[in-house]
Amino acid sequence: MELTPVIKAATDLWSSLSATPKHAGHRLPPMLPGGVPVLGHALEMRKDPIALIQRGRDMFGDIFSMRLPGRPTVVMTGHRAQEKYFRWRDKDVDQREVYRFTVPVFGKGIAYDAEPEIMREQLGFFHAALRESRLRTYADGFIQEAEEYFGKWGDEGVVNMIEVGNELTIYTSSRSLLGEGFRKHLSGEFAHLYHDLEAGMNTLSLFAPNFPSPSHIRRDQARVKLGEMIGGIVEQRRRDGSDSEDFMQTLLEATYKDGRELTAAEITGLLLTIMFAGHHTSGVTLAWTGVNIAKHPHIAADLRAEQERVLGDRKDVGLDDLRAMNVLEWTVKEVLRMYPPLIMLMRKALRDLEFGGYDIPAGTMMMASPSVGHRIPSIFADPHRFDPYRFGPGREEDKRSPYGHIAFGAGRHRCMGIIFAQLQLRALWSHLLRNFDFELVDPPASYVVDYSNIIAGPQPPCRLRYRRRR
Questions:
Q1: Which fold has domain 3-468?
Q2: Domain segments of the chain: what residues?
Q3: What predicted TM-score, i.e. pTM, was given to this entire model?
Q4: What is the pLDDT of residues 236-257, one digit of tens each?
Q5: What is the DSSP secondary-structure string of 378-444?
Q6: Are strands 63-68 and 365-368 parallel, antiparallel or unpaired?
Q7: What does the pLDDT look like over 295-341, one tens digit per residue?
Q8: Pairing mode, if any, of strands 365-368 and 71-76?
């Protein structure tokens, strides 16, 4: 592919987010040295964004600037900076223009393409989907999917945990969101279309979401077909008057404040929004959990002891059992601290702002980084050490600051999917811990982060050897 149109599209997009801020009279955050003409620090960002952001923090502390195509970007890390970043009001900062690359996937008028008040109503629909009765249904579904999926494994073998995570979570997500009936008839076509949709949200999409690249063309074609497929289920549910404990039912029952029901297109868009938010992020977290359990046998032993303590000789597992598995909860939380799927969170300043004695002019792009923020010693002790017990009684390091652990964001825009995601991961790993032992196939140093995708997972192949427990 010729790069010139891509570079131009990237430059045009970042420039169009607002006119270049007028810097006269402003004390701007210090600029990170380096970069190249036009692209600024973009090449270094593409190679290793976390090393770039960490270099800026090491040089300047909580706030600094760097150049991305078209305009400077302010980076904020550390306890005070993260708190300020997440507490700014919607009239101060905006996510919509930054995340417009999601519109071809989620649809017009959905999430970041909706007006702020409509977006808040749409997010509010998720609350009903997380009520107790539905959480119990989700938990039962997760457990059944794990039993069926891992029941097909042999006594021992080698698996790519990225592939396992992505395949299994498409089953669990589709079951919880679209219903057990849809899951039972889940066709290869749906999985293939969803793969094309997800693959069409890549690095190029950040800068030029409508550039006619092959992946974007396949994305758009898949979106049309998925819309028809899900829309057909919506219409059939409405005709039949069926009632299910799944997320689609929540949306079928929901109304906006003016009393209007959601259209089939809106339901489709919101289902794809929550599926995208929860599927790939849970898939890579499932893989990272396996890597770290294999790396730390003493943690694996504690996790298995907890399984025996909670379940005893019982084979049936329910929501209350999963909630009682504290060490497993802390382990998943520690995986998300050290390997957050979203390594950068973006905003745009809508008005002149100030932090730490520096001015942030209106129109400036702003960034927080969970990957860097989670490894600051003043927030998390010995931050490069994998230690789930940092979240346990007497320590609770995540409670030192409500803006310290930001894998799912923080404040008013904290992702509500955290409850769903952690429940899903606990259910799947509860089954795996009772039934399998794991060990690394490759040297430990080879299990590193892959920064080539928007969702940062392990660099492939992420291979583990399993043996069935007797």
A1: Cytochrome p450 (1.10.630)
A2: 3-468
A3: 0.89
A4: 888 887 777 788 888 999 999 9
A5: TTSSSTTS--GGGGSTTT-GGGS-TTT--BTB-GGG--TTHHHHHHHHHHHHHHHHHHEEEEESS-G
A6: unpaired
A7: 999 999 999 999 999 999 898 999 999 999 999 999 999 999 999 99
A8: parallel
